[in-house]
Amino acid sequence: MFFDTHAHLNAEQYNEDLQEVIDRALDEGISNIVVVGFDRPTIEKAMELTEKYDFIYASVGWHPVDAIDMTEDDLRWIEELSSHPKVVALGEMGLDYYWDKSPKDIQQEVFRKQIRLAKKVNLPIVIHNRDATADIVEILKEEGAGEVGGIMHCFSGSPEIAKECVDMNFFISLGGPVTFKNAKKPKEVADVIPLEKLLIETDCPYLTPHPFRGKRNEPSYVKLVAEQIAEIKGLSVEEVAQATTENAKKLFGIN
């Protein structure tokens, strides 16, 4: 059984055929999915999905690109939702220096507030990082984020940074890019990071794995990520599936 630890089934790309997408995931042996909400509409939709499907859980937080829009009311709302039995993490949160909608100082402030909230409610955090590795690592250390730990979502950094994050009590999550022929770093990370610290994800509808690259991603394709990791590590797909599923359930507190 496979655990897709990061999916956006709350995205408009699934408005027409969501049930078919979910059925395909179940047919491919996907046992659990965490749907990630990162602003008001996507959080609301993620919560709706957790109510409808027993195998879907939610992570709720505020995306760094939209940090400038987050209010204290939003933060209080996320805190209220954190006590819901199917909310298993806070995020995605972090820093995104690629898009310039939200100034860096505001992104950092919102990131710190969410880490502090996670420590208060004792939930792991899901980290979004784009072109901001050094600042993210520094903030995680300064805020003592290792206390709750979490996930470096769709990790694209070096093996050295991956090891540093593992030392801070974070899991390294790999998605579609590990299957890309030219993706050197994710393959190196898959090789050097112990299986007990790895997770798999799709980040669907984005980052579709080979051979479907360029098309809409969906949870059933998380199996392709597991197959690539198994090949790199010289393991069976079943071993990777079992370990990454156990890792996810342990992190998220799912029995």
Set out the fold topology.
Layout (H helix, E strand, L loop, with lengths): L1 E6 L10 H10 L2 E8 L2 H13 L3 E5 L11 H10 L5 E10 L7 H18 L3 E6 L2 H10 L7 E3 L6 H9 L2 E5 L9 H9 L5 E3 L21 H12 L3 H16 L3
Summed up, what is this model?
This protein is an alpha/beta fold and 255 residues long. It has 9 helices and 8 strands. Strand 7, helix 7 and strand 8 form a beta-alpha-beta unit.
Number of helices: 9
Order of helices and strands: EHEHEHEHEHEHEHEHH
Question: Any idea what the radius of gyration is?
Answer: 17 Å
* Coarse morphology: globular
Write down the overall mean pLDDT. 98
Helical residue percent band: 40-55%
The count of strands amounts to 8
> Largest sheet, order of strands side by side?
1-2-3-4-5-6-7-8
Distance between the termini: 14 Å
Largest sheet: 8 strands, parallel
What share of residues are in beta strands? Answer: 15-25%
Structural class: alpha/beta
Low-confidence stretches: none
Task: Give an overview of the whole structure.
It holds the Pfam family TatD_DNase. Keywords: Hydrolase, Metal-binding. Its EC number is 3.1.-.-. One of its GO terms (molecular function) is hydrolase activity. This is TatD family hydrolase. The chain has 255 residues and is an alpha/beta fold. Helices cover 42% and strands 18% of the residues. The protein has an eight-stranded parallel β-sheet. The chain is globular. The model has no long low-confidence stretch (mean pLDDT 98).
Q: What brief labels describe this structure?
A:
single chain, 255 residues, alpha/beta, eight-stranded parallel β-sheet, 9 helices, globular
